[in-house]
Amino acid sequence: MAERQRRIRIGIDTGGTFTDVVAFDEDTGELVTTKTPSTPSNPADGFLAGIDKVLGLLGATGADIDAVSHGTTVATNQLLEGKVDRLGFITNTGYEAMLEIARQSVPDGYGNSYFWVKPDRIVPRDRVKGVEGRLDVNGDEVRPFDEDGARAVARWFKEQGINTLGVCFLHAYANPVHEDRMRAILAEEHPEAIVSLSSEVLREYREYERAMTTLVDAAVKPRLSAYVNNIKARLTSYDDRTIPFYVMKSNGGVLSADEVVHQPITTVLSGPAAGALGAALIAKVAGFDKVLTSDGGGTSTDVSVVIDGEPTLTTEGSVGAFPSKIPMIDVVTVGAGGGSIAWLSPEGNLKVGPQSAGADPGPLCYGKGGTEVTITDAHVFLGRIPPHLLGGEIPLDVDAARNGIEALAKQLGLSPEACATGILEISAWNQANALRQVTVKRGLDVRDFALTTFGGSGSLLLCRLMDVLGIPTVLVAPNPGNVSAFGLLTVDVKNDYVQTHVALADKLDAADVARVFDGLAKQATVALSKEGFAADEHQFVRTADLRYFGQAFEVRVAVPDGPVDADALDEVARRFHAEHRVLYGYDFSGDDSQQVEWVNLRVSGIGPIRRPEIKRHGGFETGLRPSSTTDTVVEEGALAPVPKPPRQVCFDAEQGYVDTPVLWRPDLAPGTVVEGPVIIEEFGSTVPVHPGFAVRIDEFLNLIVTRSQEGSQA
Q1: SS3 sequence of 275-338
Q2: pTM here?
Q3: Tens digit of pLDDT for each residue in 137-192?
Q4: CATH number for the 493-607 domain, one of 3.40.50, 2.60.40, 3.40.30, 3.30.1490?
Q5: Is residue 139 a contact partner of residue 174, using CB atoms and an 8 Å limit?
């Protein structure tokens, strides 16, 4: 084994078009970022190519790698694309129709009842088998487990060649004994089967959500396990030691590859979660406490809310058509990425997305056989992005984009400029609607937030988003295309544990609550110790799900540190009333007739890591002066940015193309103020600044975009 000279941690986020890489040298504090094309046919190839590239930039070797953290879209894409292999479902006799019955809710409200068609179940009714046996709500056995019937079911699935199975018995969250016995029988009768148990995936009540979450876990387990194990094996080519390999989870933590293959569902929003966390840290350091994040990639745009540096969490999320009741960062995804396809509806209307050209063949301008116009093609045609990507590494075919836009414009009876700007306008409104879902629908005023845009395509439409939503400020971090990969280096190891414990507040026994919390903390302690954290490093966060008696869903609130006694329980109730008022505009804190009910107790076990420092750069004296070389305004004492050759850019179809300065972002020093119209380019992304907007470079090298009048006063 080569002697290690350095300690380098690497974060890698695999997207639909590019694989983003950030390396952090723990000894020097140096951060290096780069990108490499993704390889959809085998994402591991792009993953390793990214490691090779960043090691070359650092002048390092595999022996210097301290750890690798990865945000993967393998599970997410499998579910979004509906590529679920044949699954089997085992439940209690008499409950075989659980998935068919599901819930009574109809998307978009009951006004849609006449038109909505219930989607196909993740497991068709003919592949659901029941086994006799029953536990009550407390986990006590009402009827014994039918071992002969269980063996018959196991043999049936083996004969059918169904090797991926989910098991969900009633009240297994209270006592897993029947599920454990079912797994043992499957190991004897059908040893090839990959099995997920609800008592391990989601230990809380509501059998439909628990069953669906368990089946999603089983569905993604074979593919994700093969992918993670493949990368883990190929990492040995860098060094003959075992390089620590972590995978991002949906809850905002990471977990070792050895453990994550047993919890595959926890990765379903792996990439978007990393981006939200990276953007949250960058915005907090820059002084913004209420932030919306918008992560624009090649296939989609992911948006979330960050308050006081922490992204909001939910357990009511879903991926595609599949609800997944696990803790996850509250992300809304819309099919509005750089590769989203512009198409005509049967009525002749212009539509954009959610279909995407992806990385292969990609947009027309990629010259790789793409045949349909995409958002990227519209940007290229309008001059808003340069005729190349990655600082010139990937040339773009501008003529192919122009020909595609002109052909589509002819079908619409529009000018090419109107067609291209129309494509981008639809995309901007799609993104704006996603941002409204995480704000307005949750009782938040979007105008109270700053927006931080990142991802390769995330900042291309920021000026229109400011207009559409009334957002006052947008922050664009340095190397915005690599924010998700950076986020992977900022997250702790984290595991979540839950136990249903339903009781009215006035009948709640503090000793019982303490006992459950202690049991969950012990599970977290075992997991953190296996991850290599010493006992004095372990951190625990306790929360509880509460509701008013008779409500169907709960509100999660923090449980104070220290002993769980009557005072602690009263404090939790007070926090619940306050949070309920924030969310819904009312509470019953002064009404003794409305009782509070506890539902779930939760513990998160956290193993902290060292985060990269976001460095502050020197500022300048106040006082503005015009630059002699551009139409920008520069802080007194700063060197004026040197413009690249100007480019003809169309910001408005009616006004047509205007001669627009092009600036190279690394040349912009802190304190520089740039008035639009201007194009700001860097290695992995481009920011078109429309007329009427201004950009200030802050002391952390972020672009702070405001409207011109506000920007001139910055």
Answers
A1: HHHHHHHHHHHCCCCEEEEEEECCCCEEEEEEECCEECEECCCEECCEECCCCEECCEEECCCC
A2: 0.79
A3: 999 999 999 999 999 999 999 999 999 999 999 999 999 999 999 999 999 999 99
A4: 3.30.1490
A5: yes
